Amino acid sequence: MTELLIQNILNHITLSKKEIDSFCNLFDQKEVQKKHFLLREGQICKFEGFVTKGLFRVYNIDNNGFEQVLYFAQENWWITDIDSFTNETPSQLYIQALEESEVLLISKKDKELAYDNIPKIEKLFRVMTQKTHISLQRRMIDNLSKTADQRYIDFIEKYPNLFQRLTNVQIAAYLGISHEFLSKIRRKIASK
Questions:
Q1: Could you give the angle at the alpha carbon of 36 between the alpha carbons of 31 and 41, nearest 5°?
Q2: Looking at the whole model, is its pTM more than 0.85?
Q3: Distance between CA 173 and CA 161 in Å, rounded?
Q4: Angle between the N-to-C axes of helices 120-145 and 2-12, in degrees from 0 to 180, rounded to the nearest 10
Q5: pLDDT at 28
Q6: Which residues of the chain have pLDDT under 70?
Q7: How far apart, in whole angstroms, are the C-alpha atoms of residue 93 and residue 111?
Q8: 87, 101, 161, 180: which has the highest count of C-beta atoms within 10 A?
Q9: Which residues in 154-178 are b (16+ Cβ under 10 Å) and which e?
Q10: Which residue, 26, 55, 58, is CA-closest to 39?
Q11: Contact at 8 Å (CB) between 49 and 161?
């Protein structure tokens, strides 16, 4: 299970075999059944997770009861509620498995231990945080400047493998539109 994690780490930084082993030993493996939750609103997020198998959605529910998907996390992606994890405050998010899934989890205490004992790990998380900020910034700009049709086409092109694993309702919640409106967009695109 750690091979995927090791590949992910080495895509960002260089570590010795000893450093890799030391860091990977700080993670706990967890299996999560389809539709089960890693985190629910109101709980304090006590982990950062690395998905080794399956698919998760990270979402909240607005005051009108509508789900708003922040992101999906498939194999080789990281998941957490960074606000709750960092500040140890109750989460506003849910993290739910959409498939039978497996994830490697690291606690805040163990992450800090890694920072102290393997200084390059701080660079790893800094680089990943920067990439996350860039992705979120681009998504915000797209949501403000592109039509729902354009955002849907961009989603399909950017995440073709992920697109095949999701329902229309889940994709619509990510795009911030109703699934009925998404059906209209799909019909319009299919007729072209």
A1: 120
A2: yes
A3: 18
A4: 80
A5: 97
A6: 1
A7: 21
A8: 101
A9: ebeeebeebeeebeeebbbbbbebe
A10: 58
A11: no
CA dist., res. 69 & res. 143, Å (int): 13
For the chain, what is the mean pLDDT?
A: 95
CA 38 to chain centre: 12
What's the CA gap between 157 and 57, in Å, rounded? 19
Domains and CATH numbers, the chain: 2-120 (2.60.120.10)
The residue among 41, 49, 30, 173 whose CA lies nearest residue 100 is: 30
Matching residue, tokens 């992705």? 135
pLDDT digits (tens, 9 = 90+) for 101-151: 999 999 999 999 999 999 999 999 999 999 999 999 999 999 999 999 999
What integer pLDDT is reported at residue 133 of this predicted model? 92
Residues in the chain: 192
